[in-house]
Amino acid sequence: MRQPWYCRRPALLAQVQADVEAFCTTLHVFVESDAVAIRGTFPVMHAGEVLERYAVKVEFPADYPDRMPIVREVGGKIPWTADNHIFPATGVCCVLLPEDRWWSFPPGKPFSQYLRGPLHNYFLGQSVVAAGGAWPFGEHDHGACGVIAFYEEKFGTNDAKVVVRALSALATGKVRGHLPCPCESGKIIRQCHPGIIEVAKKMPAWALRESRDSLIRSAESAERAQARAANAARERPSEQ
Fold this sequence. Notes:
This protein is 45% helix and 13% strand. It has helices spanning 5-8, 10-23, 101-104, 111-130, 143-155, 160-170, 189-192, 195-202, 205-235, and strands at 27-31, 36-46, 49-60, 70-73.
């Protein structure tokens, strides 16, 4: 069985501990029997002043930094709803789209970049919305719609089918600029949708494969829901 990241990479754990300590004194790293977690209050800052604090628990998966930290707001300030960018069933905060992390907080970057960037922006956005404002950082939509929009922007297309075909090609790890473009235009990728190559440089094949599979599952789930609704409508007695 593979050892967890903090056993294999003690220097990375030491860096996380130092970054948390330097960020604020109200967050603390705990190395437990089978996991590493951060607990305490997270400060939302502006112009050097603390505007608000959120009680948080941040858990590191066994394969960190390949996988992102799992964040929960545990003080009850944020409702567990999709509109608040929290998964209702688990209370996990949707700090970033998993796909966006390869741009906003790629593996190899210090944990301080995550604390001061995506995580701070997430809680700042929560404070702004709670005060009656709009989400300040152009947050993505929920679920498959957000993932599709993300890749449409990166690939330079507005066709969801092109996104899925491009992801299927990228998932092989063998996409090159001189190959035919997945959009089936007949052109090579670098002359048609060069953004596909830029994504291949940022994201590993396994992450692209997960994106493709999640979109396919979402589409299949939507089709089943539509079929059930259609069957229910046909079976419903007509009004006299």
